[in-house]
Design a protein that fits this description.
Largest sheet: 7 strands, mixed
Number of helices: 4
Shape: globular
Distance between the termini: 36 Å
Helix content: 10-25%
CATH superfamily of one domain: Vaccinia Virus protein VP39
CATH topology of one domain: Rossmann fold
Structural class: alpha/beta
Number of strands: 7
Order of helices and strands: HEHEHEEHEEE
Length: 193
């Protein structure tokens, strides 16, 4: 695993090999990450990285959020509740020397996120363990905690294609092997901040 582009381009992150199933760590591959970031910065959604506030739920090793910082994000809040994930995340933040732009919150992303209640994010990454419905639960919490604005872009990775999510519009879905990256925005008809 490495940072693909930006100020930390080529910097190697802590290696997990194919992941750590016991800790539910399944890092997004470099190829998939590059494709996702090309879509985020390619103009279709505007540039949702440059000087943006990012939320990385189920952060794991932090590869998505660290890539965002490398490409110009203002700040990233990483949320994960796994002890192993937090340990790896701290190491990766140190490797990239971005402690001034990164904050780690150890909590369950499917529960209320009270310490974030006064924040609104430009981009949200949600990369939960597949097949458990955790991504949809996290979306519900994001809405309830008013962490979104009407232009927030959400990237939800899952092991299968999702056709609809209440209160959100799916703008695109891309398949990468056994992963599906869904690009969502809050439904304009719902009361978002």
């Amino acid at each position: 695993m490495r940072i693909i582009s930006g100020i930390n381009k080529g910097r190697n992150l802590v290696s997990l090999g194919k992941g750590d199933p016991s800790a539910h760590l399944r890092p997004t591959s470099d190829r998939v990450r590059e494709s996702i970031f090309n879509l985020i910065t390619g103009g279709r959604f505007g540039n949702k990285l440059e000087n943006c506030r990012i939320l990385d739920l189920f952060a794991g090793t932090g590869a998505l959020g660290l890539e965002a910082i490398s490409r110009g994000a203002k700040s990233v809040i990483f949320v994960d509740n796994g002890q192993q994930a937090i340990k790896l995340l701290r190491k990766n933040i140190s490797i990239c020397d971005v402690g001034n732009k990164a904050q780690i919150i150890k909590t369950d992303a499917t529960k209320k996120l009270p310490t974030l209640s006064k924040n609104s994010f430009d981009t949200v990454f949600i990369d939960p363990p597949y097949g458990k419905g955790l991504g949809q639960k996290a979306l519900k919490i994001l809405k309830e905690c008013q962490l979104l604005n009407k232009e927030t872009l959400i990237i939800l990775e899952e092991g299968q294609q999702i056709n609809s999510v209440e209160s959100f519009s799916i703008k695109d879905c891309r398949r990468y092997g056994s992963s599906y990256a869904h690009f969502l925005t809050p439904n304009m008809l719902q009361p978002f901040t």
